[in-house]
């Protein structure tokens, strides 16, 4: 199992809209690619910054091949949408993790 994790640092001024948009639009768009088997959406409790909150969106894929396909066919288009909507008020970084059995 491969975990594709996107962590966002979100300014408080857009936080409510960000959460609603992620739940209602962005997460369903990513999941609709058919390349992920499940997803989770978390708010980090140990954010050190009083100006922002951190969120983690986790998408689970069966294999790295699915992630490669996502990157090749969908990632660029889907990554630009939150950038356009929030600019520097929601900054993302991405990590890939592999389940250790």
Low-confidence stretches: none
Alpha plus pi helix count: 2
Annotated CATH architecture? 2-Layer Sandwich
- Find the count of extended strands (DSSP E, 2+ residues): 4
Lateral arrangement of strands in the main beta sheet: 2-3-1-4
Number of structural domains: 1
Shape: globular
Query: What is the CATH top level name?
Result: Alpha Beta
Question: How much β-strand is present in the residues?
Answer: 25-35%
Task: Determine the mean pLDDT.
Answer: 95
Relevant terms:
Alpha-Beta Plaits, globular, 101 residues, 2 helices, four-stranded antiparallel beta sheet, alpha+beta
Architecture blueprint of SSEs:
Elements: E1 2-11, H1 15-31, E2 38-43, E3 52-61, H2 64-86, E4 90-98
Antiparallel strand pairs: 1-3, 1-4, 2-3
Protein name: DUF4286 family protein
Pfam family, one: DUF4286
Organism: Algoriphagus namhaensis
If you had to describe this structure to a student in words, what would you say it looks like?
- There is one protein chain.
- It contains 2 helices and 4 strands.
- It has 101 residues and is an alpha+beta fold.
- The protein has a single domain (2-98), classed as Alpha-Beta Plaits, CATH 3.30.70.100.
- β2 (38-43) and β3 form a beta hairpin.
- α1 runs antiparallel to α2 (64-86).
- The chain is globular and about 40 Å long.
- This is DUF4286 family protein.
- InterPro entries: DUF4286.
């Amino acid at each position: 199992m491969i975990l594709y994790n996107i962590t966002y640092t979100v300014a408080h001024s857009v936080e409510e809209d960000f959460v609603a948009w992620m739940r209602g639009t962005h997460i369903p768009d990513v999941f609709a690619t058919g390349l992920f088997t499940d997803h989770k959406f978390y708010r980090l409790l140990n954010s050190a910054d009083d100006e922002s909150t951190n969120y983690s969106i986790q998408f689970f894929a069966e294999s790295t091949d699915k992630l490669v396909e996502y990157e090749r066919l969908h990632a660029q288009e889907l990554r630009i949408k939150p950038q356009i909507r929030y600019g520097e008020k929601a900054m993302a970084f991405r990590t890939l993790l592999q389940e250790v059995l």
